[in-house]
Design goal:
The complex is a heterodimer of chains A (335) and B (535). With 335 residues, chain A is mainly α. The radius of gyration of chain B is 26 Å and the shape is globular. In chain B, the strands form 5 sheets. In chain B, strands 8-9-10-1-11-19-12 form a 7-stranded mixed sheet. In chain B, strands 14-18-13-17-15-16 form a 6-stranded mixed sheet. In chain B, helix 8 packs antiparallel against helix 10 and helix 14 packs antiparallel against helix 15. With 535 residues, chain B is of the alpha+beta class. The chains are: A mainly alpha (335), B alpha+beta (535). At the A-B interface, helix 2, helix 3, helix 5, helix 7 and helix 9 of A face helix 1, strand 10, helix 6 and helix 12 of B.
Amino acid sequence: MLTYTVRRLFSLIPVLIGMTLVVFAIIHAIPGNPAQVILGQRATKEAVKALTEQLGLNKPWYIQYFEYIKSLLHGDLGISLRTRGPINEEIWPYLMATLELTIVAMLIAIIIGVNAGVISAWFSNSWFDYTAMVLALIGVSLPIFWLGLMEQWAFSIKLGWLPTTGREDVRDPVNAMTNLYLLDTLLQGRFDQFWVVLQHLILPSLALATIPMAIIARMTRATMLEVMKSDFIRTARAKGLRMFWVVYKHSFKNAIIPVLTVIGLQTGLLLGGAILTETIFGWPGIGRYLFDAISYRDYPVIQSGILIIAAIFVFINLIVDLLYVFVDPRIKFTK
Amino acid sequence: MKKISVTWLLISLLAISMFLAGCGSKSTSGTKSSNSSSSSKKDTLVYGRGGDSTSLDPITTTEGETFKVTINIFETLVNYGEQDTTLHPGLAKSWEVSPDGLTYTFHLQQGVKFQDGTDFNADAVVFNFDRWMNGDDKQFPYYTMFGGYKKDAGHVIKDVKAIDQNTVQFVLKHPMAPFLKNLAMSPFGIASPTAVKKWGDKFREHPVGTGPFQFVEWKQNDRIVLEKNPNYWQKGLPKLNKIIFRVIPENTARLNALANGEIDVMDGLNNSDEATVKANSNLQIIKRPSMNVGYLGFTVTRKPFDNKLVRQALSYAIDKKAIINAFYGGQAVPAKNPMPPSIEGYNDDIQDYPYDLAKAKDLLKQAGYPNGFSMDLWAMPVARPYMPEGMKVAEVIQESLSKIGVKAKIQSVDWATYLDKAAKGEFDAYMLGWTGDNGDADNFLYALLDKDSIGSNNYSRYNNDQVHNLLIKAQQETDQAKRNELYKQAQVIIHDDAPWVPLVHSTPLLAASKDVVNYIPHPTGSEVLSKVEFK
């Protein structure tokens, strides 16, 4: 298994290099001059020209690309054109903010989605099944933008239960260490802040969880139904095993692999696709960082941001593949 | 099986109710704590806005979001009035101008210190101007307001010198009428020389000035925290202890945060949300005095817009009142000139092109387009105070033009590309606008419609030598009455040439919690919050 893991890791290198090339090409195909955007609507044309040269944007694209790769190999993600700060340092808090949001959202999506799927399969064609699947259908089709604003309206303004935006109470900010605020507050023993941070997480993570939750529920239900029709389940039931164990132990274990794949894919998608949620909930995450970078044509930030998300995505897939073995040892790594 | 399903149902109901109860009980305690804190007077203001600053060194950018923060950290030699652009003492308590308009002598406030303890004096002023004039337009883009940099022929400042500790003198190469108004602009806030030397390029993240608030923290895309400057030279100010500028990009989400008490003030309120704010007894509306223009520009080098009659015909075909009622909630006035009426030199005698389709058709016929023509109409992709809903306004204009046989195809593209294409003159007709920097007519007419500005802000590529001569003459005229006359003449020619259809001068709206008092919005878009407090 170790050799398999190492081999898989090495095979990621060409994937990531290809990724940089594609991203680089796409970004440079977008019209609009970063120098113009940075200097603003009021800049003189001389200033724009001078900045373009200073940023090296007048060089041929392949030279720009090789310079980029060269510094990347030195672990240098470059300098943000807009803030002029090193991206290595800047990107970290954003990434952690999104990671925290995504983890909580995925936990919600998995716990509710998987259970809803299992129960729907167990009591297929019952009222629960119908309700859950109709809700799941609505879930996949809801625009997150609308959902987010509705959540704010209902839970914050009408009921006054939860805060609408941000990660913390800005009047009593969290002392960031890891930038995973739930962890930071616990490490500092600030349980009052932990609760505040958790409250801030609920609405955005629910909004973010909706689509994966629905997809996971539908996927789980489908695979569970398949497995529950099989012979060994019939045998298990004939032996008089309690239905709970039949469903949650025997069937679930066999139905989980396709679900794992979906979970892996969805986690990757969430990481990159949290832009809308982050915009509505004023969440300072990587989605917002990238979105701002795109509107400012901040090439280095766009490149590095997408590359990091892509890398995480690829790694999650690797982890999912490794989990297969854990769940089902029949899957061998001979090749 | 039935039994299990009932158990499950009960368990999930229990879980949900516990969750809801938990939220409910906690939030009551939350409200209580906020109530108790309001009994001991609130002194932290949370200001919600749509975008982050790009830098905290105001001279390094031209972006408005930056100045909202830096105006509270840095001060200028001369100040604008509280709600207008008249001139008042700032770091200079008085000044004299020589009769030839070439020498400005400023007497500085005494006993003022920068937030890092450095003394503010004439040397500090000289240091700042030296720093800027020795830079270039990519370092200090706004410094071009003084005609370029030290190396440039057009640079108007010949010399800046310290006469003594408290007196500083500027000698100009030729008279520059808007000189004092320029000095009052936020980018020319005086920075601590010690801090500039200490931080170098990093000064943009570690600003130090003489203002009422000092910088504490900047978490990008999230918040900027300022704290009261305990040694501020104006006694009794600032009233607040802390200001937190928070970024919440989405207008509706920002309003939700305001209604929920997470922020105390928000800018960029949608006109359509005015009623919501008014209906909420905890909130108030704050109106920013108007100093902007939203317009429909024609690129006059492109056919058929190179024909004056065509431009005039289209000017007759747009119903400004309908646009204002539909998209500005009535919070705007129709524009007839390229600058707002609040600016000195505004020509109120000009008669606007009335909404008259028959006249428009007639002019088109004279121009040789009896059956109209097809054109691209570029709509702004972003909301700006002068153009909150560009796409919808474009649809109304499209509808109007179709009535005179002109088929307008609405196009849009992201903001960065939009400005790029506009500057290159690639649009037939486009929507844009401008908010004044210093309340001077020059900042509208010369910046937007002079032939010198083609390639930068004269997106219409409008080139009229008569107008150019008037504007250059006005720049050097120090007698305000004579200047006003020159600007009025220029507006007559521009109105007749019709390179734009000036659409509106809008009143941008802010909303605040009811207990915020003394919030005095400034027409330039940024204001010092030193007098703001809570009831």
